[in-house]
Design brief:
314 residues, mainly alpha, two-stranded antiparallel sheet, 2 strands, globular, EmrE-like, AA-Vitamin_Transporters
């Protein structure tokens, strides 16, 4: 009996990309709940719930304790020293910068507003990854990415009456922090299991996050729904979601898989309806379909990796 032919490198790469995109989509759906759940946790300015600083430190501390138990169960070795700078960059972006800036902004604006402004995160991640990882996306790929972000920003401008608010600056800084954290985490995930990467990031942050959570523990009572939002962003947004997200980035490539995140703001809009009671209008549905189209077209366009470019003599 003749053994089945081995998969060609091209077929193997395509299969890995498909798995990466699927895992990236799962991570995006988990992260999409972060905005409404964070809003639920911190509450609006006229009815504040948990302090933003506590939500930031507490979610990372709880996820860090879960990570400590998981690493002990897996008997995972300490990452080599060469990975420590990237792990620190990941912690600065995803454990500290993004959650804190997002929580502060969500005290001032609703989840739908935050969702459309943070929709530029995929382009920021792709641009940073292209520089750091020396990738060369095709012009068509960049056009699709820019078109998707333009739709997101256009939607934000229309919904906001052409006016930006102070919280938008916090949200854009959150986007930059998230991009730094994603790219740094993806670099380490190319060599270490994705689940271990986020666990080591969170465990390494415990000396900072545990005391900060204790120091910012809320002194006023909060609704049960606020604690439920805190629990979600701690276990899912801060921990389990990254298992899928970093593995997806490592398999499918940071530049390409990051574009799936263009769907995140509109998934967040949909989740905000049942969670927060915010209204969803037809314009949002139309923009969501347009963004999905840019992602589907963009994923079919070539992205040059360093190895492929070297082989082509470029």
């Amino acid at each position: 009996m003749t053994p089945p032919p081995l998969p060609t490198p091209t077929a193997t790469a395509r299969a890995a990309e498909r798995r990466g995109l699927a895992l990236g989509l799962l991570g995006v759906l988990i992260f999409a709940m972060t905005l409404p759940m964070t809003r639920l946790a911190v509450g609006p300015q006229d009815a504040p719930q948990l302090p933003p600083a506590f939500v930031t430190a507490g979610r990372a501390a709880l996820a860090g304790l879960l990570s400590l138990a998981a690493l002990a169960l897996w008997r995972a070795p300490v990452p080599p020293r060469r990975h420590w700078p990237a792990l620190a960059g990941c912690a600065a972006g995803t454990v500290l910068g993004f959650p804190l800036l997002l929580a502060l902004a969500l005290r001032q604006v609703d989840a739908m507003h935050a969702a459309v402004v943070t929709g530029v995160l995929p382009l920021a991640t792709a641009a940073l990854a292209a520089v750091v990882q020396r990738q060369r996306p095709s012009a068509g790929f960049w056009l699709c990415a820019i078109a998707g972000c333009a739709i997101v920003l256009g939607y934000a401008a229309v919904q906001g009456g052409g006016r930006w608010v102070a919280a938008d600056g916090l949200l854009l800084l959150a986007v930059l922090s998230g991009a730094v954290g994603y790219v740094a985490g993806a670099r380490v995930s190319a060599e270490l299991p994705a689940a271990q990467v986020i666990c080591w990031v969170l465990v390494g942050s415990l000396p900072l996050t545990l005391p900060a959570a204790w120091a910012t523990w809320p002194t006023a009572p909060a609704r049960a729904s606020a604690w439920a939002g805190f629990a979600y962003v701690s276990v899912f947004s801060m921990w389990l979601g990254f298992f899928a997200w970093y593995r997806g980035l490592a398999l499918g490539g940071t530049v390409r898989v990051s574009q799936v995140q263009l769907l995140q703001p509109f998934a967040a809009l949909l989740f905000a309806v049942p969670v927060l009671g915010e209204r969803l209008d037809p314009a949002t549905v139309g923009c969501a379909l347009a963004v999905i189209a840019t992602v589907l077209v963009g994923r079919r366009l070539p992205v040059g990796t360093p190895r492929a470019l070297a082989a082509a003599g470029r």
